[in-house]
Specification:
43% of the residues lie in helices and 18% in strands. It is built from twelve helices and twelve strands. The mean pLDDT is 95. The structure holds 3-isopropylmalic acid and magnesium ion.
């Protein structure tokens, strides 16, 4: 009997819809060749939801998300909604989802694929050994602090972190480091901000429970510089909501393209997976978007939420082999290289996936016959 999972798909805007199509093709394919089945419910979000019912996300969509085993999101936003007030903008839907579902952990791994070292804007020898994860706190800090507002004389936001918020995200980072190279860099601005002095101290207290982890502190400005100077020095970067937003874009670019990076947003009960890239209105509707970040997000979902790490690993391997075979979308192609579109890239990944599957199965047959 196939194990059945309920997935909520939120394609969103721009290339979000195009890469979501790729994700759903992958799910269908994985379901056809393994003992899993996916029951997908699709809902509009962001600009698409504003057009459909006037708000970036509605209560019914939140309910569907709450009922799912995992949520997949494409991307939200576009120039046609840029003049709306903060509360009605497409981005609000993402923040609302994070808040309503308690998704306090954001994992953004940045790993350089061997086949893509040349696609980075940095020198090959600088980026070659990049393998880090940004652990970004996602439901606190200045993104959610009260009071907030602006009038024609002043604009203001509030940056607060509570002990519980810092402790739980610090634990996520420590646990993750134990499964990796054992190093956490806590990034803050404790030379200026009291909220950062508090963050620094609480993280050190949590680290005492993890003798197997080496904890370093780094100011955020230095961290931005070190990321482009020598990214290989980082294992797990632990940081607050806004610094994580900025540093994860930097980390993403090291790998060659924002179009490559997946992410997971996790809470105690719910989980959402999305590419780090945005809706890219400039290339939307052309079938040119790189689907690999979205497909890698599906792999993270299979591994983390659906607890089928063997399927997640196969999908990741399929991405790697597709790149190694030379297939490139425009964002990661060297000049003069042959470029393929979203659908063709997805098809290539699925063919690789089948080859890996077939090899694994014949290997297992061989073991049985022995
Ligand atoms: C991200 C995005 C969002 C954020 C925006 C779209 C609200 O930049 O997920 O990194 O700032 O968190
Ligand atoms: Mg961002």
């Amino acid at each position: 009997m196939a194990q059945a999972f309920r997935i909520t798909a939120l394609p969103g805007d721009g290339i979000g819809a195009e890469v979501m199509e790729a994700a759903l093709a992958v799910l269908e394919h994985v379901g056809a060749s393994a003992t899993v089945a996916f029951e997908v419910t699709t809902r509009p979000i962001g600009g698409a939801a504003i057009e459909a019912h006037g708000r970036p996300i509605d209560e019914a969509t939140l309910e569907v998300c709450r009922a799912a085993d995992a949520i997949l999101l494409g991307a939200v936003g576009g120039p046609q909604w840029d003049r709306l007030p903060t509360e009605s903008r497409p981005e609000r839907a993402l923040l609302r989802l994070r808040e309503a579902l308690g998704l306090f952990t954001n994992l953004r791994p940045a790993k350089v694929y061997a086949a893509l070292v040349q696609a980075s804007s940095l020198k090959e020898e600088v980026v070659a050994d990049t393998d880090l994860v940004v652990v970004r706190e996602l439901t606190g800090g200045i993104y959610f602090g009260q009071p907030r507002g602006y009038d024609d004389q002043r604009g203001w936001n509030t940056l607060v972190y509570t002990r519980n918020e810092v402790e739980r995200i610090a634990r996520v980072a420590m646990e993750l480091a134990l499964k990796r190279r054992g190093k956490v860099t806590s990034v803050h601005k404790a030379n200026v901000l009291e909220s950062s002095q508090f963050w620094r101290d609480v993280v050190h207290q949590v680290a005492e429970e993890y003798p197997g982890v080496t904890l370093d502190d780094m100011y955020v400005d230095n961290a931005a510089m070190q990321l482009v100077r020598q990214p290989g020095q980082f294992d797990v970067i632990l940081t607050q909501n806004m610094f994580g937003d900025i540093l994860s874009d930097v980390a993403a670019m090291i790998t060659g393209s924002l179009g490559m990076l997946p992410s997971a947003s996790l809470g105690d009960k719910h989980a959402l997976y999305e590419p780090v890239h945005g809706s890219a209105p400039d290339i939307a509707g052309q079938g040119q978007a790189n689907p690999l970040a979205m497909i890698a997000s599906v792999a993270m979902m299979l591994t983390i939420s659906l607890e089928r790490p063997e399927l997640g690993a196969r999908l990741e391997q399929a991405i790697e082999q597709t790149l190694a075979a030379g297939y490139r979308t425009a964002d990661i192609a060297a000049s003069g290289a042959q470029v393929i579109g979203t659908d063709e890239m997805t098809r290539q990944v699925l063919e690789s996936y089948d080859r890996i599957n077939a090899a694994t199965e014949s290997h297992q047959e061989a073991i049985k016959e022995d």
